[in-house]
């Protein structure tokens, strides 16, 4: 058998297959290129046709005017009338409280300021001042019908919460009022500030569940002596800074130091 001849035929078939495949791929690439060019051309034509309409619609929506504005009239005339005529200004503010005159006629704040400078050349106007004057609120035109003097000024107002303390279970409230103070001079004033020594207090306890109120007077000076005699110690600090006294009541931060001896002897259950 002639192997060389047989191998030559096989090599020829392989070469023919490669040439056919290459030509087929070239034809497909050419077809894809033509299709791409056609698609690009169509897209460009569509964009070219829709472009002016889109631009035209965008241009028409830039500035909107209110219904009372005549499009054939110069909008600067509305600004001039608004500045010069108080009745017209009141009419506009009453009917269009959420708009400004320059926005209503399709102009800007710069146009408004320019018109005002033109009408009043001696008047100095800044953008910030004008913007503040143009801002409207629902409460601007309201005036109080009656006037009266406040019973308590803001500086003298005391928040009730700083005078009330609660027990560990949260079912009781307590307030302490100073009933009697000592004549002793506070030591170390430069270090601890102005203080007074309390002798007697009035304790008010409210039961939150039943709304029952208990009130009693306690001589914490005598209670301090009694505890010292019975147990040879005391934990009460009767010196209270003047800043912790509000309208005769002691703030809640000082409650524990004032009643600790009374609680130790079961005079107060809190």
Write structural notes for this entry.
- Among the domains are: 75-134, no CATH class; 160-184 and 192-264, no CATH class.
- It is 47% helix and 14% strand.
- The chain is built from nine helices and seven strands; from the N terminus they run H-H-H-H-H-H-E-E-H-E-E-H-E-E-E-H.
Q: Major β-sheet, in short?
A: 5 strands, antiparallel
Termini Cα gap:
122 Å
State the low-pLDDT regions, or none: 50-61
Cα shape: flat
Radius of gyration: 46 Å
Structural class: alpha+beta
Helix share, percent:
40-55%
In terms of topology, how is this protein built?
Layout lengths: L2 H58 L14 H10 L1 H10 L5 H4 L4 H11 L7 H8 L30 E2 L5 E10 L7 H4 L2 E13 L5 E7 H12 L7 E3 L3 E2 L2 E2 L4 H10 L6
Antiparallel strand pairs: 1-2, 2-3, 3-4, 3-5, 6-7
How would you concisely characterize the structure shown here?
With 270 residues, the chain is of the alpha+beta class.
Descriptors for this entry?
flat, 270 residues, two-stranded antiparallel ribbon, 9 helices, 7 strands, alpha+beta, five-stranded antiparallel β-sheet
């Amino acid at each position: 058998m002639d192997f060389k001849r047989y191998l030559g035929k096989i090599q020829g078939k392989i070469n023919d297959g490669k040439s056919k495949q290459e030509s087929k791929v070239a034809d497909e690439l050419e077809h894809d290129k033509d299709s791409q060019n056609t698609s690009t051309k169509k897209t460009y034509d569509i964009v070219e046709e829709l472009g002016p309409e889109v631009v035209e619609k965008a241009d028409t929506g830039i500035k909107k005017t209110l219904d009372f504005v005549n499009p054939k009239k110069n909008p600067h005339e509305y600004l001039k009338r608004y500045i010069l005529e108080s009745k017209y200004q009141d009419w506009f503010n009453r009917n269009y409280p959420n708009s400004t005159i320059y926005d209503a006629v399709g102009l800007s704040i710069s146009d408004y300021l320019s018109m005002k400078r033109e009408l009043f050349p001696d008047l100095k106007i800044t953008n910030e001042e004008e913007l503040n004057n143009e801002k409207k609120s629902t409460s601007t035109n309201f005036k109080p019908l009656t006037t009266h003097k406040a019973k308590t000024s803001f500086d003298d107002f005391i928040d009730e919460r700083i005078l009330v303390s609660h027990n560990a279970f949260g079912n009781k409230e307590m307030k302490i009022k100073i009933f009697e103070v000592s004549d002793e001079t506070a030591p170390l004033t430069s270090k601890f500030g102005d203080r007074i020594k309390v002798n007697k207090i009035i304790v008010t306890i409210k039961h939150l569940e039943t709304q029952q109120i208990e009130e009693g007077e306690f001589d914490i000076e005598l209670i301090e002596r009694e505890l010292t005699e019975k147990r040879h110690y005391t934990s009460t600090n009767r010196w209270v800074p003047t800043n912790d006294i509000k309208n005769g009541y002691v703030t809640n931060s000082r409650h524990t130091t004032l009643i600790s001896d009374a609680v130790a002897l079961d005079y107060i259950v809190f």
